[in-house]
Design brief:
The chain folds into 2 domains: 148 residues, no CATH class; 315 residues, 3-Layer(aba) Sandwich (Rossmann fold), CATH 3.40.50. Helix content is 39%, strand content 19%. It is built from 11 helices and 15 strands. It starts with a helix and ends with a helix. The N terminus is likely disordered.
Length: 469
């Protein structure tokens, strides 16, 4: 920038000398008066351009340092007392290219306003101007002030990830990479004792493997009731619990799908007026259970990445069941069950000012399996019900203030019909929270690279949501 300014100045100077050398009559007299004025005006203009360019560059450097610091405060990578050193370090790097020899950026102040949730910084440079004028110093001070929002909200994320048979081969490898990278982005650098971000994993296929939450599952028996036994039937309750930990949809007293987030200890009344606990069904028609187990909210990055690395592709796609368990992992109504199973502190109470809750639903195809309200074969031929169940649960999540992101991976696969592809896209679009401005919630990707990019964009958008909601 300085080189161009000096070039302009030299051109003005050469023009002035050429005019000064003209000895033709009155023009020489007039030139003697006006040339110094023209030179002063040109020099003044160059000073204005120079100072304006420096101020613009300084503002960009300060803004970048403050924005990055605010982001690190938001994600918990640094504490408010570290903001000054963070801005200072980043500013030195950002401003290095705009300094002339002998110039130095001075950081005058960094202010963290915890009440307003802002970081503000002021910096300045003393600039050697190109054309000193009468009564002005050779150096002019240029300053810039900028501010950025940050948030100390806690963030809870449920990742519902498709591990069905169609995800075999390269696609399951791509999912592992993308999901592990997202976990790393969200959790790296946190205070281990007071993590601000926690993540739950819900791998799903034909069902969800509840792992340590198997006591929340009611195991159906062929030809028997689809409801858990009354609470006074102690032996029957014990005998019907757990099993392999696999769970499908929860059914209401009439056998229909239940879309609530009620905890498994919630008391309900059956059609005989008897009280039972609202445990989640394991339908007796389930053919296979995912080997990957559900993990409730945790900040243990090693635990999450190890679990993701163990994903194996098998089974059909019960998207409604996935959405249901993602909802449970963000609901405080499940906190007692999670604590009783020694699986962490469980979800926080809803508070828009203190907690941001996010669900990420990812699949590579049409949801095609549902059990509740289905007579006969449930696997593979229930796309209307499965998609409808997912949309109903997504609607409840959004009503509860949960932001829903969706990712469709390789949905244009030619192994499926056009109508199936369109139906899959529609369900994901309807499930997602609507896009607002630059904040995108629904993604369609075709390659592993695009899948990774989508997860990373969502991770960044989660940070943005914690500032704006």
């Amino acid at each position: 920038m300085a080189g161009r300014d000096m070039l302009q100045f030299r051109k003005v100077g050469r023009t002035a000398l050429r005019l000064a050398g003209d000895r033709r009559g009155n023009f020489a007299v007039l030139g003697g008066v006006t040339i110094p004025l023209l030179a002063m005006a040109a020099g003044f203009g160059l000073n204005i351009v120079q100072l304006s360019n420096v101020k613009s560059s300084l503002s960009l450097a300060v803004d970048a340092a403050v924005t990055s610091t605010a982001r690190d405060l938001t994600t918990g990578r640094i504490k408010p007392e570290d903001a000054d050193s963070s801005v200072r370090t980043l500013l030195e790097v950002n401003a290095a290219n705009l300094l002339a020899p002998g110039e130095k950026v001075v950081l005058r102040s960094v202010t963290v306003d915890k009440l307003a949730g802002t970081v503000e910084a002021t910096a300045e440079i003393d600039v050697d101007i190109f054309f000193p004028l009468f009564g002005t110093a050779n150096r002019q001070r240029v300053s810039a002030t900028t501010a950025s929002l940050y948030s100390d909200k806690r963030i809870e994320v449920a990742m519902m990830l498709d591990v069905t048979g169609s995800m075999g081969g390269q696609k399951i490898k791509d999912l592992k990479t993308a999901a592990q990278n997202a976990v790393s982005i969200l959790l790296t650098g946190q205070d281990a004792d007071k993590p601000r971000i926690r993540i739950a994993l819900v791998p799903y296929a034909e069902a969800v493997n509840t792992g340590g939450l198997s006591d929340a599952v009611f195991v159906e028996k062929p030809g028997k009731s689809d409801l858990p036994p009354p609470i006074d039937a102690v032996q029957a309750v014990s005998a019907s619990s757990g099993g392999d930990g696999c769970a499908t949809e929860r059914k209401d007293k009439d056998g229909a799908a239940d879309f609530s987030d009620d905890g498994p200890y919630t008391e309900r009344e059956n059609n005989k007026g008897e009280i039972y606990l609202a445990r989640v069904n394991r339908d007796d028609r389930v053919g296979s259970c995912p080997s990957a187990k559900l993990i409730p909210l945790t900040a243990d990055m090693a635990k999450l990445t190890t679990a993701i690395d163990g994903f194996r592709a098998n089974g059909v796609t019960a998207g409604g069941i996935a959405a249901q368990w993602g909802y449970y992992m963000l609901s405080p109504k499940w906190r007692t069950a999670i604590k009783d199973a020694n699986l962490g502190a469980g979800p926080s109470d809803p508070d828009a000012k203190k907690v941001a809750k996010v669900a990420i639903l990812m699949t590579d195809g049409l949801f095609n399996t549902a059990f509740a309200g289905v007579s006969g074969k449930a696997q593979g031929g229930q796309s209307v019900k499965s998609g409808s169940y997912a949309e109903s649960i997504c609607a409840n999540m959004k009503k509860d203030g949960i932001e829903v992101f969706t990712i469709g991976f390789d949905l244009d696969n030619k192994d499926t019909s056009k109508s199936e592809r369109n139906a899959a896209k529609a369900v994901l679009k309807n499930c997602a929270t609507p896009d607002t401005g630059t904040l995108k919630r629904s993604f369609e990707v075709s390659t592993g690279k695009e899948l990774d990019d989508a997860f990373q964009t969502i991770a960044r958008n989660i940070e943005q949501l914690s500032l704006t909601k």
